[in-house]
Each structure stands twice: as C-alpha cells, then as structure tokens.
Design a protein that fits this description.
Blueprint (H helix, E strand, L loop, with lengths): L4 H15 L1 E5 L14 E5 L11 E6 L2 E6 L11
C-alpha cells in the first residue's frame, strides 16, 4: 500500500527519525533520465553539511517532498 498526502509524509518522517532510512516511490519527470517516475529509492538521513554539489537529496518544503540534485551551496566563512 502506498500512502501520500500529510499521512504518508508523517510516516516517512517517523521512519527517517526511527531508523535513519526510508523508501519512497518517485513521482514526476524533473530528474529524468537520472531518476524515473515510478522508481523506488532509498532515503537516508544525513547532516546537511555532508551534502556536496552533485549529490541527490530530498528536501521538505511545507507538505511537499522534493528529490533533486544539489547544484550549488551558499558559501559560509570561506566554505562551500
């Protein structure tokens, strides 16, 4: 069974907090051909400073989870 909406997002967040990992099914074509609609991917929790330009990450914007490639980072005190 696949859950979506606020209930599915809440379950995803709980799984990430409890085990540090979760699986999701992708919807959309913005990452095609790297990632395809309907593919299942494994997410794992990491600290934001571990992400590097070129990595694919999942970002929460309100009630929307977006999976995309990191194309830039704001520099802070000479660091990327």
């Amino acid at each position: 069974m696949e859950l979506s909406g606020p209930e599915g997002l809440q379950l995803l967040l709980e799984a990430l907090k409890a085990s540090g990992a979760a699986r999701i099914t992708l919807r959309g074509v913005s990452m095609h051909p790297t990632l395809r609609d309907g593919w299942r991917i494994q997410l794992r929790s990491i600290a934001p400073d571990e992400l590097r330009v070129g990595d694919i990450g999942a970002f929460l914007h309100g009630q929307i989870l977006t999976v995309h490639r990191l194309i830039w980072r704001k520099r802070t005190a000479g660091r990327e």
